Amino acid sequence: MDNIRMTEKKKTTTQIVQGSDKVVDSLVQIMQKAQRINISVDSTRPSLAKEFKQIRDAFIDAKSRGVTIRYITEITENNVSYAKS
Question: DSSP letters along 21-81, please?
Answer without folding.
Answer: HHHHHHHHHHHHH-SEEEEE--TTSHHHHHH-HHHHHHHHHHHHTT-EEEEE----TTTHH
